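Help needed: design a sequence for this.
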């Protein structure tokens, strides 16, 4: 049984990666329905949180059906991180996660996210401060290093464990790589194999099929897998991996009816949570993946991403279902 503190996650948990503008409550609901064992919120700026900024505070919204769930924060100021930890604790998640992996320039330039990989001492001190500021189990998500010359993740894992984190998720790329090239899981395996490490180690990067999940589970010995981009518009990745682990069989792809139902649920909840304008707008990134591989889908997709009225979008989705229920996909 893999545990983060007292939070039990099963024998080999599948985690939903925290993704900005993606892993919000409407999307998390779909992933949970498809078997995700633990999810994380979008990352939240501690500066926004302590200043009561609407966007940051809204990201604290969590629901009982999502549990167990972790709220992820990012920042570089010690006082702000400690104050934010107290605010997160009041929101009552199971876990508080610190983002030391985001490679986006505007985050990195503030020495937050992956930027802090340039100063491991500060990273460790910041983590120590957060651990001491909350009763919640603290976890960390990070990368192998800043660049190819600074892949210190084995040492970093030891030091973070020493100051009290309860689990570590590692994306198998450096900050310099961004999301390019292939994720290198060999160093993730070295962290897991280190006899000093006793906390769960979760691997992240490039898992996009049940076969790959099984291969990496066996080859690299991690305690669980965190899935990000492969789940966007395709929450079924979680059920497919679990089914493959249990049976060795590849599940049939979701039907057009399932895809349309998921897109409708996602859109409905998105509007309820964000309001009509933003809810419609932010759904657009998902449609391509909901209907990826459908022949001649482009005209429908163009309609979906250019229409502003929810009623018309639901009609377009109905038309997709009607069309592809009787056509070859």
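Sure. Designed sequence:
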């Amino acid at each position: 049984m893999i545990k983060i503190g007292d939070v039990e996650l099963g024998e080999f948990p599948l985690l939903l990666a925290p993704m900005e503008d993606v892993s919000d409550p409407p999307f998390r609901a779909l992933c949970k329905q498809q078997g995700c064992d633990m999810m994380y919120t979008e990352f939240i700026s501690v500066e926004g949180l302590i200043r009561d900024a609407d966007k940051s505070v809204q990201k604290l919204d969590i629901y009982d059906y999502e549990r167990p769930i972790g709220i992820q924060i990012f920042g570089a100021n010690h006082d702000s991180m400690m104050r934010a930890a107290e605010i997160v604790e009041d929101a009552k998640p199971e876990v508080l996660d610190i983002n030391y992996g985001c490679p986006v320039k505007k985050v990195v330039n503030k020495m937050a996210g992956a930027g802090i990989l340039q100063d491991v001492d500060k990273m460790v001190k910041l983590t120590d401060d957060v651990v001491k500021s909350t009763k919640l189990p603290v976890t960390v998500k990070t990368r192998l290093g800043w660049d190819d010359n600074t892949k210190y993740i084995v040492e970093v894992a030891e030091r973070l464990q020493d100051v009290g984190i309860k689990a570590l998720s590692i994306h198998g790329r450096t900050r310099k790589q961004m999301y390019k090239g292939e994720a290198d899981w060999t160093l993730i395996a070295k962290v897991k194999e280190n006899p000093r490490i006793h906390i769960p180690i979760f691997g992240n990067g490039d898992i996009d099929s049940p076969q790959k999940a099984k291969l990496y589970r066996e080859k690299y010995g991690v305690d669980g897998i965190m899935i990000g981009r492969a789940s966007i518009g395709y929450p079924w990745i979680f059920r497919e991996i679990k089914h493959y682990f249990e049976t060795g069989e590849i599940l049939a792809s979701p039907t057009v009816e399932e895809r349309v139902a998921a897109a409708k649920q996602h859109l409905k909840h998105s509007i309820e949570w964000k309001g009509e304008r933003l809810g419609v707008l932010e759904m657009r990134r998902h449609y391509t993946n909901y209907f990826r591989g459908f022949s001649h889908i482009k005209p429908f997709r163009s309609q979906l991403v250019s229409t502003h009225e929810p009623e018309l979008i639901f009609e377009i989705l109905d038309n997709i279902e009607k069309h592809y229920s009787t056509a070859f996909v």
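The mean pLDDT is 93.
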